[in-house]
Amino acid sequence: MLRYTPIPSADVTALQQGKPDAYGMIPERHISDGQGMPCRHCLANIDAGAPYLILAYRPFPALQPYAETGPIFLHAEECKAYEEAAKPPILTTSKDYILRGYSNEHRIIYGTGAATAVEDIERYAAELLNRNDVAYVHVRSARNNCYQCRIEAA
């Protein structure tokens, strides 16, 4: 069984309250047109007309060579963290995503990265998580490499 993990609620609340992002900048505030604005906290698309934030996010505990940082979207207002067992809505809006395994030391496990069709996400994530050297999996956009969420064994 898999668990889809959004970015931590404490981080989201701080960013919504104006805390600087991973680059030390205040998140930008915009209004959604309803297309392609996936919130990395509730793991759903941000509805048209709703305010959202664009910011730099690093889904790793510390700086190191593999700690990629990139742009993400968040609801500007409070939203509930994703807690469902099913594949989240943001992972159904593209034909494929990049899945990549990471070690307990938060390092990429070479050879695990693959553009994965939506219908194969669960299978490939489970395959990676069955390996002894993979602690968790990142899901990223196959087009822009933007971080979507983390997958762990439940």
Automatic annotation (TrEMBL):
Superkingdom of origin organism: Bacteria
Cross-referenced Pfam families: DUF1203
Protein name (Swiss-Prot/TrEMBL): DUF1203 domain-containing protein
Organism: Pararhizobium capsulatum DSM 1112
